[in-house]
């Protein structure tokens, strides 16, 4: 009889231990238990450790709701950012060659990001400037080529007598053609050259914006994984309460930051911004109080 009671007690302890492990690890891989429960209640039971049960009921429910609301908001914003990036890449693939339109020949901005984005994410652009400086240094050190002849310096390519004659002949033919066609031909040729250069710069700006957004998405995913690990590893009840509030705040601020950058890069509409503001987020105001320089009645709705 005593042996049967000992076996039953050992089985109960093993079952309780397996349930506690499932609760602590289910936040990453899910749990098969409690399938009849509601999804939100099941997620709350898995993610909140057992030592948080000593808190008052209403306060505990409010803390859990804020945590899961922030998690849902951040997940939706990350999904929206990835969708916008994918759509921009598909647009570039669908239109490999844009038609020449002389009406749109205005030069794009020198930088691919506005000042508000630079103030929002300073660390990234410090790395960006260092990368550009290194790239320019490498390009300057490489030997340049002209008409198939390598040069020993980057200032003036070395040309043989034959290549010099070929260059003079090409220049003479081009100048003769311009003189024959007249000034309208020269003006049209210059307009097309400027249009091609501006189109190339715009495409480069679009690519670098997408690279910036991809970097942000990956960084926020890594940070959120670290937050989840810290929540599961916390054993102190008081520290856990503070950690839950801090995690909810950090997730909401990260979602707001991504939405502001999507708006600055003109990848979301004013309707989407309004829906996001009405969803109950209170951290959307800029933390750095950077004044906006753009004037737009449709986008600057806040």
In what range is the share of β-strand residues?
A: under 5%
Q: What class do helices, strands and sheet pairing give?
A: mainly alpha
Profile the largest sheet.
Answer: 2 strands, antiparallel
Identify low-pLDDT runs: 20-56, 145-162, 282-302
Widest β-sheet, arrangement of strands: 1-2
Written as H for each helix and E for each strand, in order along the chain, the element string is HHHHHEEHHHH
Globally, the shape reads: elongated
Beta-strand segment tally: 2
Summed over residues and divided by their number, the pLDDT gives a mean of 66
Helix content: 55-70%
Number of helices: 9
Gyration radius, rounded: 30 Å
- Cα(first) to Cα(last) distance is 73 Å
Biased composition (Low complexity): 1-24
Region (Disordered): 1-68, 136-156
What does this structure look like?
The protein is mainly alpha-helical and 302 residues long. It has a domain at 63-96 and 114-122 and 208-282. It is built from 9 helices and 2 strands; from the N terminus they run H-H-H-H-H-E-E-H-H-H-H. It has helices spanning 2-29, 39-47, 57-94, 115-120, 122-141, 161-181, 183-233, 237-264, 270-278; strands spanning 145-146, 149-150. A hairpin with a 2-residue loop joins strand 1 and strand 2. Residues 1-68, 136-156 are annotated as: Disordered. Residues 1-24 have a biased composition (Low complexity).
């Amino acid at each position: 009889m005593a042996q049967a009671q000992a076996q039953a007690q050992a089985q109960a302890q093993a079952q309780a231990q397996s349930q506690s492990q499932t609760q602590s690890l289910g936040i990453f891989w899910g749990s098969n238990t409690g399938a009849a429960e509601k999804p939100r209640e099941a997620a709350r039971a898995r993610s909140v450790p057992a030592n948080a049960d000593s808190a008052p009921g209403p306060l505990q429910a409010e803390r859990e709701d804020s945590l899961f609301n922030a998690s849902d908001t951040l997940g939706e914003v990350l999904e929206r950012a990835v969708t916008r990036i994918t759509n921009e890449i598909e647009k570039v693939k669908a239109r490999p060659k844009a038609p020449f339109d002389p009406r749109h020949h205005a030069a794009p901005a020198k930088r691919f990001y506005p000042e508000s984005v630079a103030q929002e994410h300073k660390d990234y652009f410090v790395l960006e400037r260092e990368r550009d400086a290194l790239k320019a240094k490498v390009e300057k050190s490489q030997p340049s080529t002209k008409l198939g002849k390598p040069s020993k310096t980057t200032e003036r390519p070395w040309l043989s007598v034959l290549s010099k004659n070929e260059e003079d002949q090409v220049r003479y033919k081009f100048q003769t053609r311009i003189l024959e066609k007249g000034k309208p031909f020269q003006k049209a040729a210059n307009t097309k050259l400027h249009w091609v250069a501006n189109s190339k710069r715009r495409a480069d700006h679009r690519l670098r914006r997408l690279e910036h957004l991809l970097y942000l998405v990956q960084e926020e995913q890594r940070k959120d994984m670290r937050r989840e690990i810290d929540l599961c590893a916390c054993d102190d009840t008081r520290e856990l309460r503070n950690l839950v509030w801090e995690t909810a705040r950090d997730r909401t601020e990260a979602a707001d930051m991504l939405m502001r950058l999507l708006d600055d890069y003109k990848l979301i509409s004013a309707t989407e911004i309004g829906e996001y503001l009405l969803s109950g987020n209170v951290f959307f105001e800029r933390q750095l109080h950077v004044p906006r320089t753009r004037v737009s009645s449709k986008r600057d709705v806040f």
